[in-house]
């Protein structure tokens, strides 16, 4: 099991700016927000900020596993790959995609935008929908098991390997539900008030592993645990934060972008990209 690359550390901005392990009673909803027009979704008809060009924004620096080598243009990393797949679905060639840098907080503020869409781990929330539009989700956070090097959990390759261990999660979260339902540890789950409490217990050896959502797992194991490792993702876990492409409020592009995301979901493209960039490249295998 590899240590998390330090390049993942600044996932802090995105991973902590949103709810890391969303409480079950807090629902964001998955429907797209925005205009409801039914116009043509072709480059000739889409009113983009630059003619025949799709301008896509993200933050700088751009970190793995969402982007690779701080270069959104190379198509590597999950979000870069998704952006180009959406562009292709809309009929844009790769050389018709223009990238621009926009800080996370600037993107979610109300007002006109100098981009057509922004991809930067934006969690879809009702509050944000008051200021901007979102596509339907291109990613729903799965739950992951994390531990430290040398822990009994570090060598686990299946859920069965985890059942006899002491594993914790934050109370009233989808992480706790996944721990209870997917792993069902023999001794029952160890419940903590916060993720910080769970992380401290892991550091002190009071538990062998903890369950958090995958974006939080990337952050904790790279930035907060000196010897942190991701054991793997829990197969079938769901209910975490949903990430959507961000557009200006009432953008005429929202419906077309949503249709593109839905098509990529339906044909398996999103699942394949998640396997490539969030499981294999990011060393977060799925535990079955």
TrEMBL record:
Pfam families: SBP_bac_3. It comes from the Bacteria. One of its GO terms (molecular function) is ligand-gated monoatomic ion channel activity. SMART domains: PBPb, PBPe. Residues 1-22 form the signal peptide. Residues 25-47 are annotated as: Disordered. Residues 53-281 form the Solute-binding protein family 3/N-terminal domain. GO terms for cellular component: membrane. PANTHER family: AMINO-ACID-BINDING PROTEIN YXEM-RELATED, MEMBRANE-BOUND LYTIC MUREIN TRANSGLYCOSYLASE F. This is Polar amino acid transport system substrate-binding protein. Residues 53-280 form the Ionotropic glutamate receptor C-terminal domain. Keywords: Signal. The lineage of its organism: Bacteria, Bacillati, Actinomycetota, Actinomycetes, Geodermatophilales. Residues 25-34 have a biased composition (Low complexity).
């Amino acid at each position: 099991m590899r240590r998390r690359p330090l390049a993942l550390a600044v996932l802090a901005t995105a991973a902590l700016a949103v709810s890391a392990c969303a409480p079950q009673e807090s629902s964001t909803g998955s429907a797209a927000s925005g205009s409801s027009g039914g116009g043509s979704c072709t480059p000739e008809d889409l009113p983009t900020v630059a003619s025949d060009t799709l301008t896509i924004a993200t933050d700088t620096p751009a970190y793995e596993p969402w982007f690779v080598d701080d270069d959104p243009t190379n198509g590597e990393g999950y979000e870069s790959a998704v952006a180009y797949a959406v562009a292709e679905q809309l009929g844009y060639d790769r050389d018709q995609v223009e990238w621009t840098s926009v800080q996370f907080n600037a993107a979610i503020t109300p007002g006109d935008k100098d981009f057509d869409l922004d991809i930067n781990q934006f969690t879809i929330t009702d509050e944000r929908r008051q200021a901007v539009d979102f596509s339907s989700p291109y990613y729903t956070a799965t739950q992951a098991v994390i531990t430290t090097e040398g822990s009994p959990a570090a060598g686990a390759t299946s859920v069965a390997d985890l059942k006899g261990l002491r594993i914790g999660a934050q109370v009233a979260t989808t992480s706790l539900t996944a721990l209870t339902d997917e792993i069902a540890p023999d001794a029952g789950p160890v419940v903590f008030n916060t993720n910080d409490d769970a992380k401290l217990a892991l550091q002190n050896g009071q538990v062998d592993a903890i369950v958090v959502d995958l974006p939080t797992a990337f952050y904790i194991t790279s930035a907060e645990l000196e010897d942190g490792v991701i054991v793997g993702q829990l197969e079938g876990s769901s209910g975490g934060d949903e990430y959507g492409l961000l557009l200006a409020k009432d953008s005429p592009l929202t419906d077309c972008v949503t249709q593109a995301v839905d098509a990529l979901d339906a044909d398996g493209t999103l699942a394949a990209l998640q396997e490539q960039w969030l499981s294999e490249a990011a060393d977060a295998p799925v535990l079955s």
